[in-house]
């Protein structure tokens, strides 16, 4: 766990807030420069310095469609150029059209890309035929022949040459980020792609020549500035918070995890920062933290050392190093709400404050006072205008602005919780949560959760979450409180986000909890090479449905993003608790589902049947269930049940030891009152919350048997056998359970 030592010293000098932080090895402080609109990842860039000037220009694009270039003089922003509002700017890239330092700015708004000079003149504009917004831009110079513009939009990578589409490539899933590399003979361009749920791949001449699956879910790339031009080495940040490096050598693509996630927020952006003649990798995360890792330039595969950590309180969208407000290096950071600030050494701050004359400080203060008076007058005029319109007899409609809010939902963990991450551009006051079903609910420690008692019945949920002042990001953990282990429909949760300020308006978020939330892990799969799939339970569906309709039906079953509709869709999901798998393959009018979990097949069968009835689409459903499916599945999770049983005993023992209320001295004495086993259990219960899902595993195994009986032709003695299985599992008699399942398999085979 990272420890942060704060000197608790704040100074307000001419409107610039300075906060000192001492973390790890570096002493750095924050200086707020300016505020833009809501920013997307990697839309903040720093132009290289020209000539003898060390100060660099800052370029930032925001959601309002404004691209602005600024310099910082005397700690105040000076606008060099600023575009008019338009479509949201989703990507910004600095490029060089003559092979030297980057001197041009490319910005993407929707499906349109424009190129700007440092003075704001538009020298390039192209409106593409892409159906999705451009998320990444690359420009590769080709010596005498100009350059190639490479755009990433959804699943499509498009090459443009001389403002004309040259070639394109469609990936199996969304492309999250890309980096370009030149071959040794400067004849070809190789692209390193990060593909959602698929890992990384090398694209060359319109073909995917190499691919590697990375389970951590990489989402952002950063090419080391010290790497060779033709050498493919790139750092990546992943959704689980880890940081690693991807290498392509001799047609082999490999990856190495350098920093494990360990509960850190997902990586949103990466950047480079020079300090004390050393290269650092800057990491911006979704939880608001900014970290600096020292990189060994001689050996990039060595584990980087953490040197600094700062928490901003809201998601970080961009991090980049440079010399903006001083001759020395500083780290420029952009947040989700558009706050642009720098992290620099506190000695530089002290020097800049000392050098500032009293006249300059007085002028800054006077300027701020005038700005405050102007804002107060504007606020009073708007308030008076609103009150005058509300008292008017003329018919009219008052429409408050739509709140800028983002939310992201993850699949279920091993404990069954699904996490919803909510981020606002303004401080949040309260959340109102309603669901027609009973839910279990957890929230951030910085908020107060209150569950209201139901008036009519106990089958629904109504809860409120009150946030601390200044909260812009909050997470919720949801879980359906069902007495049955099989849920045959998705669950809709309504969340009303109420920010602070007036007028009091709320934003409605509608969140769907899928029926099978545990199937959140993605895995590469080759049906032809895996022969074990032949013994799985199979479900065949035929009818008059389209690929889009089947994808929509599966959104009620599986968590996360599904593959986009295509002529033929195939993917594999893994159960995060049991490790069982679900293979889905469908096209127009035909779908096949295979799983080594019979309850999964039963749930998919019921939900697809209900969805087809609602849409009035006639479908034919058939199942192929092996006789030994329950026995094989039980052997697959037998070790998981053993671990859960041991944890259950530890939980029971820990509760009993807590009732003894033992003194710390008695535990740590030379002659301890507890044996070594009891002492270990007590220490583990203090360091972490012990939880056991043994009872849930019993319900799963019993449900396997019930589903097997319901889908097979012989359904006799279902209640007696299920009760017998439940009793044996509770007594932890796994050998007897295996024997019973074997006898049932042989009996069913004999009847057939």
TrEMBL record:
InterPro entries: BBS7_GAE_dom, BBS7_pf_dom, Beta-prop_BBS7, WD40_repeat_dom_sf. The keyword Coiled coil applies. Keywords: Coiled coil. Residues 358-385 form a coiled coil. Residues 401-509 form the BBS7 GAE domain. This is Bardet-Biedl syndrome 7 protein homolog isoform X1. Residues 44-343 form the BBS7 beta-propeller domain. The lineage of its organism: Eukaryota, Metazoa, Ecdysozoa, Arthropoda, Hexapoda. It comes from Bombyx mandarina (Wild silk moth).
């Amino acid at each position: 766990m990272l420890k942060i030592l704060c000197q608790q010293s704040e100074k307000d000098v001419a409107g610039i807030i300075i906060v000192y932080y001492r973390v790890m090895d570096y002493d750095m402080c924050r200086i707020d420069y300016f505020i833009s609109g809501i920013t997307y990842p990697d839309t903040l860039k720093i132009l290289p310095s020209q000539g003898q000037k060390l100060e660099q220009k800052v370029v930032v694009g925001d959601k309002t469609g404004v691209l602005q270039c600024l310099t910082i003089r005397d700690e105040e922003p000076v606008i060099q150029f600023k575009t008019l509002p338009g479509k949201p700017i989703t990507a910004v890239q600095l490029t060089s059209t003559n092979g030297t330092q980057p001197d041009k700015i490319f910005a993407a708004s929707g499906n349109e890309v424009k190129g700007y000079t440092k003075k704001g003149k538009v020298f390039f504009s192209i409106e593409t035929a892409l159906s999705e917004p451009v998320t990444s831009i690359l420009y590769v110079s080709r010596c005498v022949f100009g350059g190639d513009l490479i755009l990433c939009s959804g699943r499509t990578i498009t090459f443009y040459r001389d403002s004309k589409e040259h070639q394109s490539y469609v990936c199996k899933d969304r492309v999250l980020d890309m980096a370009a590399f030149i071959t040794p003979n400067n004849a070809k361009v190789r692209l390193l792609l990060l593909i959602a749920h698929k890992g990384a791949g090398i694209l060359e001449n319109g073909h995917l020549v190499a691919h590697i699956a990375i389970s951590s879910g990489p989402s952002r790339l950063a090419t080391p500035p010290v790497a060779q031009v033709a050498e493919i080495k790139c750092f990546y940040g992943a959704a689980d918070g880890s940081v690693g490096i991807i290498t392509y050598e001799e047609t082999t693509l490999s990856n190495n995890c350098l920093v494990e996630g360990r509960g850190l927020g997902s990586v949103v952006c990466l950047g480079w920062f020079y300090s004390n003649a050393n290269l650092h990798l800057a990491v911006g995360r979704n939880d608001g933290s900014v970290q600096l890792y020292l990189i060994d330039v001689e050996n990039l595969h060595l584990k980087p050392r953490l040197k600094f950590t700062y928490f901003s309180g809201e998601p970080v969208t961009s991090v980049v190093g440079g010399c903006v407000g001083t001759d020395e290096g500083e780290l420029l950071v952009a947040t989700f709400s558009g706050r642009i600030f720098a992290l620099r050494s506190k000695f530089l701050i002290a020097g800049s404050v000392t050098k500032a004359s009293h006249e300059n400080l007085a002028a800054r203060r006077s300027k701020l006072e005038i700005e405050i008076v102007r804002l107060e007058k504007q606020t009073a005029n708007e308030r008076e205008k609103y009150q005058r319109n509300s008292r008017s007899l003329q018919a009219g409609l008052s429409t408050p602005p739509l709140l800028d809010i983002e939310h992201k939902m993850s699949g279920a963990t091993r404990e069954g919780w699904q996490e919803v991450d909510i981020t606002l551009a303004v401080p949040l006051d309260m959340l109102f949560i309603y669901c027609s079903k009973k839910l279990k609910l957890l929230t951030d420690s910085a908020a107060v959760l209150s569950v209201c008692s139901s008036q009519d019945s106990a089958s629904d949920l109504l809860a409120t979450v009150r946030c601390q002042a200044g909260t812009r990001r909050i997470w919720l953990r949801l879980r359906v409180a069902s007495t049955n282990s099989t849920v045959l429909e998705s669950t809709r949760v309504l969340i009303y986000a109420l920010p602070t300020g007036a007028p009091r308006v709320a934003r409605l978020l509608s969140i769907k909890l899928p029926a099978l939330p545990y199937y959140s892990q993605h895995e590469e799969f080759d049906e032809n090479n895996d022969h074990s799939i032949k013994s799985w339970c199979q479900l065949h569906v035929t009818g008059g449905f389209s690929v889009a309709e089947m994808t929509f039906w599966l959104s009620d079953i599986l968590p996360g993003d599904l593959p986009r509709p295509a002529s033929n869709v195939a993917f594999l999901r893994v159960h995060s608790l049991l490790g069982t798998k679900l293979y889905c393959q469908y096209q127009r009018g035909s779908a096949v589902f295979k799983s080594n979990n019979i309850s999964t097949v039963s749930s998919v069968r019921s939900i697809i049947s209900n969805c087809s009835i609602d849409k009035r689409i006639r479908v034919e459903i058939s199942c192929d269930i092996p006789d030994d499916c329950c026995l094989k599945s039980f052997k697959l999770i037998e070790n998981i049940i053993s671990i859960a049983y041991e944890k259950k005993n530890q939980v029971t023992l820990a509760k009993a030891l807590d009732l003894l209320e033992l003194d710390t001295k008695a535990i740590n004495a030379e002659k301890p009152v507890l044996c070594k086993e009891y002492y270990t259990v007590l220490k583990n219960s203090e360091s972490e919350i012990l939880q056991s899902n043994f009872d849930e595993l019993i319900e799963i195994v019993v449900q396997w048997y019930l589903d097997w009986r319901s889908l097979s032709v012989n359904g006799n003695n279902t209640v007696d056998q299920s009760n017998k299985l439940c009793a044996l599992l509770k007594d932890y008699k796994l050998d007897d359970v295996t024997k019973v399942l074997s006898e049932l398999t042989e009996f069913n085979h004999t009847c057939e």
